Amino acid sequence: MPAPTHISVIGGGLSGLSSAYHLSRRFPTAKVTLLEQSPRLGGWVHSERVHVQDDKGNEAGILLERGPRTLRPNSKAVLELINLLELQRSLLVVPKTAAAARTRFLHIPGTRGLTALPSSVTSLLATPLGRAIALAGAREPLRSYPSAIRLAAEDGDESLHEFLSTRLGPELARVLGSALVHGIYAADSKLLSVRAAFPSLWGLAEDGRGSILRGVLSRILKSRSPEPSANDYDLGEVPRIMQTASIFSFEEGMTAFAAALEKAVIEHPNTEILKNDKVDVVQKDTADGDVTIRTQSGRIVSASHLVSAMPLPALHTLLERSSLPSLPHLTANPTSSVIVVNVVFPPTPPGQPIHPTGFGYLIPRDQDWNASVLGTVFDACALGGQDTYPSVDAPKFTKMTMMIRAEPSAPPVTQDAVLAYLTEHLAPAHPLPRPVYFSANIMHECIPTPIVGHVQRMKELRNAVWREWGERLDVIGAGVGGVSPIHPTGFGYLIPRDQDWNASVLGTVFDACALGGQDTYPSVDAPKFTKMTMMIRAEPSAPPVTQDAVLAYLTEHLAPAHPLPRPVYFSANIMHECIPTPIVGHVQRMKELRNAVWREWGERLDVIGAGVGGVSVGDCIEQGRQVGRAWDH
Ligand SMILES: Cc1cc2nc3c(=O)[nH]c(=O)nc-3n(C[C@H](O)[C@H](O)[C@H](O)COP(=O)(O)OP(=O)(O)OC[C@H]3O[C@@H](n4cnc5c(N)ncnc54)[C@H](O)[C@@H]3O)c2cc1C
Questions:
Q1: CA-closest residue to ligand 1 atom 33
Q2: 391: CB partners within 8 A, 6+ apart
Q3: Is there a domain that residue 624 lies in?
Q4: Binding pocket residue ranges, ligand 1, CB within 6 Å
Q5: Is residue 381 in a domain?
Q6: Residue 620 belongs to a domain
């Protein structure tokens, strides 16, 4: 297949922006076009600075977020972008020791006030919730997990609620699991796939034969981390800056991140960004496989390769409108809509804070599994450093963000309604003051929920994309899931005979894992290539072993998260009659051979080699070592 000459990326959210950035670096001579339907890039990223003033004349410039607000330092891809875009100086890092990182609360429906989630062993025993967690945690490794076998199955999966219920009991699963899911997906923990949304929990349970704690222990004993090697990323000094970080953002908010990506994309000589123009139709040119894109304004863009970085349902609609064959599972997941409420309170007298210090609180489902308000982030604690004041010691405003499930039947979200919610949740000692700023914005279908079976469905989607489009289309974005390395780490894989006892590809060795140390690179942290060796039975009737055929085999065997890149080296060599097979009766026959040699030749002839004493190099060397032993006496 031809190398990319013109790549079009549809969707200018963080997925599309980062793919346009990386593609323009990886293929410096190819043209890269990023197409976005709205007038601005960044997708759900939306920071804005508002000027606020109270009736005492205090004022400030408060940075508010309507979309994502904080990032975790565990994503090497994000850390790499911070390094490559030189954003180190604009970072706002919250250390692990800060109260904003350590202290998180729950508001239990039907009660007033907040319950602190345990953050240490002593705090674990201090509250009824902590003691319940400690007790369930102590029992967890002792339980038996008859369903553990499902963990290893290729299509094994269950909902987070089911997973936690089995390990911690249904009540804790409701309280902790549903609150956690509200904080990340604004969704229902009975629907969310644990394998897709919390792969590390799934991996620990897999290692611990069902138990998460046994999994943690086994990892500690084996000192094993499933993380990809940091060497694969160009991280510079960023890991050092992040060493003590719990979460982080940017002084000018998440928009600074999107803006830096946009600037880097546009500065590349071969890239263009087309905003405010929705992609309307995509056509495949049957002659050369190129793609023609038509936008709503009538623009025509042709491309050799296409990246869909828009929500999966939008891709579904686009294919339908384009009369192209549909792809499976694009509309399988529901998408949550939320109302994001930004509130700023005026400075309060000393000793009368609006809320306790901490990250914020989440609200679990009630006994009837209902949810309306999902939680509130105390932005002033973690991200107060984004706000500007006339002087260092000026009195500080309090900003917070409440998330509410957007449902057609829900009452309107007014300032008074939000104040009533906050009064119930925070149970403040003094009535809450009137906010100096209030906004409630509905985010329609903003967070896709990967429901049970998502990982398997995404494999099927990738296979269908590969069958239908080959390398010409890549589908990425929040609805698809995290990226995986090209192959899992390990020695490799073997392929058994099929039901009819046929075999063609015998297996593949992941040489880069075991033997990567043989390869030479210009520097220690240079990005690493991936080498592997596939063995195929050489038979006269077999089709020719071309690069495309091998790529198709690998795609089927590895089911990679993204289409495999074009190899930078490929060779296929036939080894005629290279491995003798010691068939049944071999040992006895070799005895008879040795006796015949002895009778015929005495000590004058010795017969050794792979066909006699074993095919491994060790067997052959051992035979070489033994030969002539009888000659010294
Ligand atoms: C309220 C909220 C809070 C969040 N908080 C956090 C957080 O604190 N931390 C965190 O890590 N994550 C958070 N997230 C999740 C994270 O922000 C998103 O998963 C991520 O931004 C999604 O990026 P994306 O590029 O995949 O999708 P999107 O941002 O949805 O981008 C897709 C883009 O495609 C464009 N598009 C669609 N159709 C077309 C078309 N036909 N032609 C051209 N363009 C098209 C859209 O306009 C859009 O710009 C939050 C999300 C929300 C909504």
A1: 11
A2: none
A3: yes
A4: 10-16, 35-38, 43-45, 67-71, 278-279, 309-311, 314, 318, 338, 340, 443, 446-447, 477-478
A5: no
A6: yes
